[in-house]
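Try this one yourself first.
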């Protein structure tokens, strides 16, 4: 493995800003008036599944309805997704929008990517919110200000869902890993995840009915070592995220805030394309490292993210959901 420095550009520590963040969102009037494609608000807990069936009037055909898709609804909720300018973050952001949430993507560049703009325009046409805020997860004050801003700007006065997906990858032999690169990876992948989760949780704790779902994007590399890849900083930073998830789940669970991790396997995004393009043999190596015989698609994060964000996973706390095609079972 080449002894290159961290692959993602250094996140710029943004200068302190006022609480009025500039959001990027398409501006024209929606083309469609009222598109309702999501399943509406989730049903009350006592009216789900078998209990709902037992309560219904057997003689009234109208009362024979299904509740499963409503449990996945994020109708009217407010969500933030760090690293949402592309890759897995943007996929999860779009899935949340489709499930009914007001979504804010947070990422480093001052302006969103072309990919983001096209997706946000798609959301605008459907009369839904996908906004972009430039900020760094490494800046505690900035993230606190962003979360407070989002609560106000969303018009919901709430913070319901937070996904900490911002991350960087780097490689170097452990014997001469540049310490500054090592620290930079921990700064974004571990401390940045903590700053993100805490700044969202501060807002969730302010709500009258404290509640929320926080999803930390770890990696299968937090639990296994990727064979032949010298990723000691990245892998250790992701192990730390897994343990952080358990600690935060224990501290905030009693208040009604659930914290879970997702551990993706190999998925082609900008992060992994750097390796795959420079080392074409890795496509076969990574694909044959799991029983499904392929890389994952970013869109395969949609279901698990919406499930963890929604009331469909209401008893899931402190878990790590591995989405790897089974990479780690061999
Ligand atoms: N792609 C995979 O195979 C894979 C596998 C396991 C885990 N992951 C994890 O999934 C997450 C998303 O990665 P991806 O594959 O979509 O890569 P990606 O590079 O497309 O996305 C990562 C995003 O994080 C942003 N970012 C970096 N530093 C930041 C900072 N300081 N503040 C805010 N944003 C910052 C980047 O600008 C980028 O948009 C990462 O945490 C990554 O470690 C990815």
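Now uncover the answer:
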């Amino acid at each position: 493995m080449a002894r290159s420095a961290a692959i993602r550009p250094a996140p710029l520590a943004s200068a302190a800003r006022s609480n009025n963040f500039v959001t990027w969102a398409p501006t024209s009037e929606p083309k469609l008036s009222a598109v309702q494609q999501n399943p509406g608000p989730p049903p009350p807990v006592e009216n789900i599944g078998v209990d709902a069936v037992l309560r219904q009037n057997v003689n009234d055909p109208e009362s024979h309805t299904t509740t499963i898709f409503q449990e996945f609804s994020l109708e009217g909720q407010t969500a933030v997704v760090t690293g949402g300018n592309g890759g897995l973050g943007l996929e999860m952001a779009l899935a949340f929008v489709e499930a009914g949430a007001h979504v804010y993507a947070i990422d480093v560049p001052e302006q969103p990517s072309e990919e983001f703009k096209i997706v946000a325009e798609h959301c605008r046409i459907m009369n839904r919110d996908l906004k972009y805020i430039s900020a760094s997860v490494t800046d505690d004050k900035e993230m606190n200000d962003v979360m407070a801003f989002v609560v106000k700007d969303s018009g919901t006065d709430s913070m319901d869902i937070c996904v900490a997906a911002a991350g960087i990858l780097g490689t170097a032999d452990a014997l001469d890993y540049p310490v500054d690169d090592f620290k930079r990876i921990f700064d974004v992948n571990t401390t940045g995840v903590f700053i993100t989760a805490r700044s969202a949780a501060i807002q969730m704790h302010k709500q009258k009915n404290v509640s929320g779902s926080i999803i930390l994007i770890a990696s299968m590399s937090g639990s296994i070592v990727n064979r032949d890849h010298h990723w000691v900083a990245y892998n250790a930073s992701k192990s730390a995220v897994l343990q952080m998830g358990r600690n935060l789940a224990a501290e905030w669970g009693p208040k009604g805030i659930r914290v879970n991790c997702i551990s993706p396997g190999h998925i082609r995004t900008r992060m992994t394309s750097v390796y795959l393009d420079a080392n074409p043999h890795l496509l076969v190596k990574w694909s044959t490292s799991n029983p499904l015989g392929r890389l994952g698609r970013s869109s395969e994060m949609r279901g698990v993210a919406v499930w963890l964000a929604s009331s469909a996973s209401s008893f899931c706390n402190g878990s790590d959901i591995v989405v790897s095609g089974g990479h780690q079972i061999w």
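Discussion: The first strand starts at residue 23 and ends at 24. The chain has two domains: 23-38+74-329, 44-72.
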